Amino acid sequence: MQPIIIVLIILVVLVFIALIKTIQVIPQASAAIVERFGRYTRTLNAGLNIVVPFIDSIRNRIDLREQVVPFPPQPVITQDNLVVNIDTVIYYQVTDARAATYEVASYIQAIEQLTVTTLRNIIGGMDLERTLTSREEINAALRGVLDEATGKWGIRVNRVELKAIEPPTSIQDSMEKQMRADRDKRAAILTAEGIRQSQILTAEGEKQSAILRAEGEAKAAALRAEGEAQAIRTVFESIHAGDADQKLLAYQYLQMLPKIAEGDANKLWIVPSEIGDALKGLSGAMGSFNPMAGMGGGSSGGGKSGGNGAERREQPPID
């Protein structure tokens, strides 16, 4: 009985192994390459698949999702003979599991080497300044070359990114100094522009203030002149309304003479020619009240004296 049991156990184990090898479960977004006696037979898609045990074998399981592969920094020489280190990231996706298995030995390594050579070819035609400012151009050129080369491998390159472009340390120091000088220059220009604008606004304000001040003074002078004219007009109208005679005017002349001579700086003053007529009128007025006016000696003496007095007043005083 023991040999029969052992044989049955072996048969059960073989059946279990055969079932395991017959039923193949492929996860979603994956594919499997099936070979029969070492020759490609078919590609298993996601789900439950049945193969012939011990005859069919699974060669390779491939992930069909988009993959991200970062590559280490690569030294690249620019057109102006400067060495820069460039980090790249490749986003790719396997579209044909059979081609990715049989057309290339290791598509990851092939993509890396192709990226390095293509990157050196692109950067070699650019100087450092253009390399630092043309990432989008480099990405597009690199993606076009990789996508064309990897198409026959059943791989589609969706995106290529340059993570970092690191120039030599000496170049970095020079660039920092240049950028610092440019910032200082812009700051000095802005400061000078601010000072200029401030001076312009100050001058404009002073100009407007002077204009307003002059206008105010002109208006004030006009108002003062108008007031004085009005005062003179009022006095003139009052005199005419009062019907002043020559006697009153002569008396006003005599009252104004001391005021004309006031002040230490008045060394010479001029008597108006009309003052003689006024004095004659005043003398006549005063003679009418003099009781000796009818006497001949007084009249001739007064006339002589008056004539001498008139002559003395008409002559200007000598300093």
Class of secondary structure makeup: alpha+beta
Radius of gyration: 62 Å
Number of DSSP-assigned strands: 8
**Measured distance between first and last alpha carbons:** 174 Å
Features:
319 residues, alpha+beta, three-stranded antiparallel sheet, 9 helices, 8 strands, disordered C terminus
Describe the protein's architecture and organization.
The chain is an alpha+beta fold and 319 residues long. 59% of the residues lie in helices and 20% in strands. Strand 2 and strand 3 form a beta hairpin. The N and C termini lie far apart (174 Å).
Brief digest:
This protein is 59% helix and 20% strand.
Secondary-structure map:
Layout: H1 2-22, E1 23-26, E2 30-36, E3 39-44, E4 47-50, E5 56-63, E6 67-77, E7 83-94, H2 97-102, H3 107-123, H4 128-133, H5 135-150, E8 155-166, H6 169-242, H7 246-260, H8 274-287, H9 296-314
Antiparallel strand pairs: 1-4, 2-3, 2-5, 6-7, 7-8
